[in-house]
Amino acid sequence: MAVRTEGLTKRYGEQVAVDSVSLTVRKGEVYGFLGPNGAGKTTTLRMILGLIRPSGGSATVLGRPAGGAGVNRQVGALVEGPGFYPYLSGRDNLRVLARYRGIGDGDVGRVLARVGLAERASDAFKAYSLGMKQRLGVAAALLGDPGLLVLDEPTNGLDPAGVGDMRRLLTELAAAGHTVLLSSHMLSEVQETCDRVGVINRGRLVVEATVGELRGSGGLRVRADPLSTALDVSRRLAGDDVTVNDGALLLRVDPGRAAEVTRALVAADVDVHEMRPVERSLEEVFFEMTADEEAAR
Amino acid sequence: MTALTASTRAEVLRLRRWPALWTLGGVWLLLNITFGYVFPYLSYRNGGGFANEGADPRQLLADVMPESVPVAVVQGMPMFGGAILFALGALTAGSGYGWGTWKTAFTQGPGRSAVLGGTLAALGGVVVAVVLGTFAIDLGIAASLASVEGQGIALPAAGDVARGLGGGVLILALWTAAGLAVGTLTRNPALAVALGLVWTLAVENLLRAVSSLLDWLGPVTDVLPGTAAGSIASAVGGNPVSEGGSPGVVDNLGGGAAVTVALCYLAVLVVVTGVLARRDVA
């Protein structure tokens, strides 16, 4: 296991920022840590990196207590924006970090090239654009080729081309056997790159599953007339898992039942204009899940 | 390579390239040369009537000769050099929280104590370099003035040099450690520097002035860091401010007691910084 937290909790006075989060990141996988802004993602990652002390629970990284001396040498991290010396060049900033890691300067050129900053490496960090700063942060996380990468919203501040580059980089890292723990509030980002996801909302881990499990088997989108009769027939077949959206029905059933549903509708004298299988996006799942959470409150 | 060595190498690199460090060092040298050599020598040329009203010209000349270099190096340190090095310590610690560089350093592998140890070692190196650099430059100036004035170049005794260099390192180390502690406490370089300047340049002097009126305050002001620093400077041979010497140079404590108090402060400040640096990093 690359990362395991058990009942990890952080309180600030009365406020509970992270509430008993138990998550596991397996070796070699890309794990997406999802949640809206302020859900507790960064606080959780900070505890995993030993930057802040948990109020309760525990976190282990690569089998050792999080934040212990030497543990982070096997971890590359970018948390809550890059932190660099503004007066140093990008290259010198990385040289400082390479020294902290106890590795030679040799790796600095490699990681600069990896994030496309080689040509601007001699410029002072303070002269960098937001996207360049972010890319230098990712370069820093790659220094020393650590087995585990912890990246907090790595696409923040990147333009669309930069976001594309970042996705490619993540895919390459995963292919090379790196374990990546990636936080994001953009589901589309996670959907394409992650093996498993953990969803956090208001400090609590709502669910932990593979992307496929989370999206479920999809459903059927039906456009039919009259709608009321079609709804009755659909409810008979699919139970309560039927919603009406934009004049169309969405049935949460195995798309393989399309013929059966069509037959039932036609038998009930309903005109079927459209019948197609749909996949839920993670976005929909996420909003359903967080809405359920809100409703439960 | 140990984590401490790794951290020290990292801190040396980032400090060496920091314009603020060179600015502060330059200001210190400028002050040292101006008040240690330029003004005394101009006064001497002016027959003792300029700035040092009624000063003995022979004494003014002796003060800028090579034999007096150990005193010239340390006499400005208790107050001015101290304030400058306090600022360096405060900026070194405080800026890192604003820039997010402590966060970055702590996620590179070495433990917090190793990172702090590296910072202390690197700043210690800066302190030693400042003292040695000041000594070398002062010696060069004094030797030049001696030849201009047709005086023989009599070098200071080895014991005086050792006392001057050791005293200077201890005074500046004390103030640097204080700056580092306050910078770590406030996590705000501007606030830390402001507090340090107010303390070194104003508060201690006012307290020492008041203690001459209030007997019970004396024992307290005797063990303030500035008093210890000033007493080290006078033990090295600096003239106390009460006898026309540099501001900040006092003789409240003997040399041994002053060194003991300064070492105690140094130890306590390092421990306090170590404890403060363990707090959560936002």
Automatic annotation (TrEMBL), chain B:
Domain of life: Bacteria
The keyword Manganese appears for this protein: no
Membrane-spanning segments: 21-42, 79-102, 114-141, 161-183, 190-210, 256-277
Key words of the record: Membrane, Transmembrane, Transmembrane helix
Protein name per the record: ABC-type transport system involved in multi-copper enzyme maturation permease subunit
Organism: Actinomadura livida
Lineage of the species this protein comes from: Bacteria, Bacillati, Actinomycetota, Actinomycetes, Streptosporangiales
